[in-house]
């Protein structure tokens, strides 16, 4: 078996070694992989064969040059490196395998001749492919191609160049692979294919995501192109399924990113509008990530888990940090702010439970939106980055989200790159990375503190004076008590106010009544009308009595009916004495009358 | 470096705002996006991330404007924000000499990290406080010219110079993006990735950039002189 297959492979191996210094071996390798992947069963079992060589593919240890400026990327690009990426920055590290993989071809070719035991494992995968439909036809077209490019070294070189020419922008793009075979399948049963993959266990979410993607794709793409898309995605799935344990995670990541780019290019070619384009891309991302999440999240080939633990411990050692040290201006005493803070903490913790990069970003965005609302309440103006970043750092410290570093790495690796560059998700993700970087590198200077104090606090030897306050602030019961006390105080205050107001009101009412009473009395005093009827009558009588001497007037008056009536009514008026004007007139009239009568009598 | 994904005449640009704290970065961008200065005006929930859609000569341009924290202790986090940016706006306070020094530091760092693909705009903010000016106009403009940036005099309070700044920057980013696309074979989206990762492309861009500089702007920095041809186009397009 080994002989039969390696017949064409020494040539390929030599081709590889020859091209190696040039650099694009990886491209070629991928093209090979793509060609071999789904349409034809891997002719040489490339990926399974490389499995035993897995460790050899691991990137080399850091060069001594990187030792001096340890934080910086050792590629000298000026960005920060990361121990997990062997002191490369993420960009250089992604580009890195292209260079580092130049070295191992000799070991790989030797691996080929050795005939590793892993080759039978390629069988189920290839069986799955042919079950996918049209696999058998493409297999025949795939093999001659390989053998054609294989035996003659110069021609192989030429085809390689041609291939590079064909895909000038993204030399590693598998698009050429899907385009190259003479007859792409007309239909592709993705469910069937998915269930045939040995490692990928399709969850219900994954299947429904696939369903959604399928229905959306059908809306934009016709049958043949539809199959093309599915083949593209499933080639990748198959590749991940077969080699996720041996391939460095960053190689897988760049393969995934390339598929996204290829998809994007295809959709642009098919005139899918921008909005739908991003929706379809996100759906493909969801499908891919849901299918591969258990394999690719925090994979055992990386030290993500270790990093998580380290970060978790670091955050724990910084739990004494309060908003004051971070100069984060939020009113923690306000109930609303604390509710938002708790919600935000929940959201950032929930990030871990989401299984696609988009969903993870969404959790982060919700969390950050709450922080912004919180800042808005506290500062009453739109939050700028100056206020927002300390707040996010504070939330990270308080929440200590599980597996945060793994999540960040997962998003960095498998999120559609464009979504990390544009949009609020990208911005908040950058902020989260900043926050983590700040937490990792936090020292006395960054929180304006004495370095020995800082050291003591971090190591737990002593507690900062304000630490209990922070703990109290987080204690729910105490907060409620404080809140209730405040409410009671304000209530009693208000009650007191109400009481004083009531007394003053009743005072006023008393005063008013008094005033009215006095006024009335005053007016009455001024205008009281006392009719001294008898006296006027007397006064009137005097001249009469003096002038008339013959008869006593009284006897005559008694005889007359009207004067008596007047007399009586006058008596009445005197009795009531409240009215002044009318009785006056009446009296005058009466007087007049009586005078007239007297005059009549006299005549 | 600048990966501006653009398809069918649409551009997505990322702009990063840098500068010391309290120089008015946030006010500038709020003024541009929301046309508000007043602090009491709470229509915007946040000012840390803002986006704006423009139409320049029939091309749709989406700007994502990323604010950064200005305090010294966050300085080291800059790279996380400005990575992959197409443009940077460096804001200083004309009444504060130190803030201008900070701009110089940023320029140095940006040029070192992102090369010359990055379009720079330097904004001398708070021109409403002209009487308290501490930073020499001529010196600032000369410096901007020397580093290939355009200099603008802005006042977020009086809404001066800000619209011009963003329009000019957008225009230059479109030019750079077109040049990049041309240099890398003129095909769609995929080009950006190759450009970002290969060193060769950066070299090509260097010459592109210098050619562009000599060609398009006689006075690389002085906002008054350069503006004319560009502004005419922009005015025509915005109508």
TrEMBL record, chain A:
InterPro entries referenced in this protein's UniProt entry, alphabetically: VPS9, Vps9-like, VPS9_dom_sf, Znf_A20
Q: What is this protein called?
A: VPS9 domain-containing protein
- Does the entry feature the keyword Zinc, yes or no? yes
Q: Which organism is it from?
A: Tigriopus californicus
The keyword Nucleus is annotated on this UniProt entry: no
> One Pfam family this chain carries?
zf-A20
Locate the compositionally biased regions of type Low complexity.
120-129, 170-187
Residue ranges occupied by any VPS9 domain in the UniProt entry: 305-448
List the SUPFAM superfamilies.
Glucocorticoid receptor-like (DNA-binding domain) (SSF57716), VPS9 domain (SSF109993)
Molecular function (GO) terms for this protein are: DNA binding; guanyl-nucleotide exchange factor activity; small GTPase binding; zinc ion binding
List UniProt keywords, sorted A-Z. Answer: Metal-binding, Zinc, Zinc-finger
One cellular component term (GO) for this entry is: endocytic vesicle
Q: Where is the segment annotated Disordered?
A: 1-67, 101-188
Please state every residue range assigned to the domain named A20-type: 67-101
**Gene Ontology terms: biological process:** vesicle-mediated transport
Classify the source by domain of life: Eukaryota
UniProtKB/TrEMBL annotation, chain B:
Task: Tell me the CDD domains matching this sequence.
Answer: Rab21
Pfam families cross-referenced by the UniProt entry: Ras (PF00071)
Q: How does it sit in the membrane?
A: Lipid-anchor
InterPro entries referenced in this protein's UniProt entry, alphabetically: P-loop_NTPase (IPR027417), Rab21 (IPR041833), Small_GTP-bd (IPR005225), Small_GTPase (IPR001806)
Q: Give the top-rank taxon of the lineage listed in the UniProt record for this protein.
A: Eukaryota
Q: Does the keyword S-adenosyl-L-methionine apply?
A: no
**GO-annotated molecular function:** GTP binding; GTPase activity
Keywords in alphabetical order, please. GTP-binding, Lipoprotein, Membrane, Nucleotide-binding, Prenylation, Protein transport, Transport
Q: What processes in GO biological process is this protein linked to?
A: protein transport; Rab protein signal transduction
GO cellular component entries: endomembrane system
Location(s), subcellular = Endomembrane system
Q: So where does this one cross the membrane?
A: none
State whether keyword Membrane applies: yes
NCBIfam families in alphabetical order: small_GTP (TIGR00231)
Task: Return the similarity comment.
Answer: Belongs to the small GTPase superfamily. Rab family.
What name goes with this protein? Ras-related protein Rab-21
Lineage runs:
Eukaryota, Metazoa, Ecdysozoa, Arthropoda, Crustacea
